[in-house]
């Protein structure tokens, strides 16, 4: 754990922002940096059906640019002396977060849970639960 970054995956929601406070506190405690990760889902579509006016690659690029703008705004409001590393990936959120967590450069993951229960829990994929089960490092799940 010591000497390795804290990974904070974000979807830019209020719940994720709440978890950021914990990530900053843990990073200050262990005197390490924060690695911020946002995963852009791959767009689904087939150019042969001409449903999309733009190609899936163009849509993905647009989504990445929007995420980069949100990341820049987030960093502008983050007043800390900590080393901050930002990454935007494209793909499945669980796969990308777990890959980053298990890269050997991350000492802990601080991730938000939206706290769905009952039927809503079955309708929404629980990213925090999957990351906690698959990551090789400690995972702090924040509600």
From TrEMBL:
SUPFAM superfamilies assigned to the protein according to its UniProt record, in alphabetical order: Adenine nucleotide alpha hydrolases-like
A Pfam family recorded for this sequence: Usp
Taxonomy, superkingdom = Bacteria
The residue ranges of the UspA domain are 4-143
Question: What InterPro entries does UniProt report for this protein, alphabetically?
Answer: Rossmann-like_a/b/a_fold, Universal_stress_UspA, UspA
The record's annotation in PANTHER family points to: SENSOR PROTEIN KDPD-RELATED, STRESS RESPONSE PROTEIN NHAX
- Family of the protein in this entry: Belongs to the universal stress protein A family.
Q: What is this protein called?
A: Universal stress protein
């Amino acid at each position: 754990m010591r000497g390795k970054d804290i990974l904070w995956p974000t979807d830019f929601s209020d719940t994720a922002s709440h978890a950021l406070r914990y990530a900053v506190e843990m990073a200050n405690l262990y005197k390490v940096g924060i690695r911020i990760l946002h995963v852009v889902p791959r767009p689904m579509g087939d150019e042969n059906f001409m449903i999309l006016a733009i190609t899936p690659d163009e849509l993905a690029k647009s989504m990445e640019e929007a995420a980069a703008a949100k990341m820049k705004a987030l960093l502008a409001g983050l007043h800390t002396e900590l080393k901050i590393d930002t990454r935007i990936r494209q793909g499945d959120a669980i796969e990308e977060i777990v890959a980053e967590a298990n890269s050997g450069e991350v000492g802990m993951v601080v991730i938000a849970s939206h706290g769905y229960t009952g039927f809503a829990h079955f309708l929404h994929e629980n990213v925090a639960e999957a990351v906690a089960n698959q990551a090789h490092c400690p995972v702090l799940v924040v509600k």
